[in-house]
Specification:
By secondary structure, the protein is of the alpha/beta class. Helix content is 42%, strand content 12%. The chain contains 14 helices and nine strands. The protein has helices spanning 24-34, 46-50, 52-61, 91-104, 118-122, 133-146, 165-173, 200-210, 225-234, 246-249, 261-284, 298-301, 308-317, 321-329; strands at 12-15, 38-40, 44-45, 82-87, 108-113, 151-156, 179-183, 215-219, 240-243. It has an eight-stranded parallel beta barrel, surrounded by five helices. It binds flavin mononucleotide (FMN). Residues 16-21, 42-43, 85, 112, 114-115, 154, 183, 191, 219-222, 243-246 line the site of flavin mononucleotide.
């Protein structure tokens, strides 16, 4: 199995995994606006995947456009390379999930060791792994043994204190991962304080000393490609930059393009078409793609112009995608 991480340009960009956001539909929207170098799925629980009851839902989360999902046929490689992100705490379930991902069409596998969600942490996963390093290592080992896909980890500086990174990051680097993404905050800090860019040089040094082959990816508060390029110049030891909430401010954030209102509206209509196609696809599989969550996306497309708030209020009242289209048509 080839390791796509080695083929990326220096200073590559990644669309961050975001639960409830970066599903197969939204990844296609971002790809249309301007693609990053790498896509991540939202995270999937390994114990769900390993159970008969949870497998169906887990597989839906792991759908890839043009492969396991047919929603986009025009360009099957639109969301490639794509990395499946998984979480949990049971090493055997990591092994079982990892062994399936290649067959589903993924290019890589990433283990979440940074999620701050209370339920995830109570279940021993995400950032809670920082507090159970032996188990974390076991999970990485079992995943690596069970797949020929390149295995990476995404984590935070620590659970409670920033200086936990002094032990935690070297421990992870010791696993000789293909890539390590560091969200430059602790679990306790959530996203409430600015990312600790001041620690980047120290983390680069650790990577250079322990695992020079591991790609180092930085995450936290990076708005767009321009900022990623600035950071790349300042910290040439960083290989790549992951952007999450930047797509909410500008879905074209992986380009230098500042979209017009008309372009954003057109992108929203594309999003609606994909939404309908996905709903149809899931219905044919006996499943559902609920309407309400699409409302979380409205602000992305309709902000920063006179009357935007008023239009958003009207769109929020709509009950289906046809109503949304009709409301938008009235503005033309
Ligand atoms: C709505 C939302 C969902 C998220 N879901 C995940 C997830 O499934 N896996 C993960 O590793 N991080 C998840 N994150 C964290 C992001 O990947 C990223 O680390 C964080 O937002 C900081 O980067 P940013 O400042 O570029 O947004 C999520 C963040 C948000 C806002």
């Amino acid at each position: 199995m080839s390791n796509f991480w080695n083929d990326l340009p220096h200073g590559f960009t990644i669309l961050a995994p975001m639960e409830g956001v970066t599903d197969v539909v939204f990844r296609q929207v971002v790809a249309r606006a301007g693609r990053p170098n790498v896509f991540f799925t939202e995270f999937t629980n390994v114990s769900s995947f390993a159970s008969e009851k949870g497998r169906h839902d887990a597989l839906e989360r792991l759908d890839i456009a043009g492969k396991t999902s047919k929603i986009v046929s025009e360009s099957p490689n639109l969301e490639s390379p794509i990395v499946a992100q998984i979480w949990g705490k049971n090493p055997e379930h990591f092994a079982e999930t990892a062994s399936h991902l290649e067959k589903l069409g993924f290019d890589g596998l990433d283990i979440n060791m940074g999620c701050p969600d209370r339920h995830v942490n109570k279940a021993g996963g995400g950032a809670a792994m920082i507090k159970t390093p032996d188990l974390a290592i076991e999970c990485i080992k079992r995943a690596k043994e069970s797949t020929s896909l390149p295995v990476s980890v995404k984590t935070r500086l620590g659970f409670t204190f920033c200086n936990e990174y002094e032990e935690w990051i070297p421990l992870l680097l010791g696993q000789h991962l293909v890539a390590l993404t560091v969200h430059l905050r602790t679990r306790k800090e959530m996203s409430k304080v600015p990312a600790h860019y001041d620690l980047i040089p120290e983390i680069i040094k650790m990577r250079d000393n322990i695992a020079p082959e591991t790609k180092l990816i930085i995450n936290g508060d990076i708005r767009d490609l321009a900022q990623a390029q600035e950071l790349s110049e300042k910290y040439p030891g960083v290989d790549g930059f992951m952007i999450g909430r930047g797509v909410f401010a500008n879905p074209y954030c992986f380009t230098h393009h500042q979209p017009t209102r008309a372009e954003l509206q057109e992108l929203f209509l594309y999003h609606l078409d994909l939404f309908d196609a996905r709903a149809k696809e899931l219905k044919s599989r006996g499943s559902r793609y609920p309407y309400e969550p699409i409302k979380h996306f409205i602000k992305i497309y309709f902000s920063g112009f006179d009357g935007a708030a008023e239009l958003r209020n009207k769109l929020m009242m709509c009950k289906n995608t046809d109503d949304l289209r009709a409301e938008i048509k009235k503005t033309e």
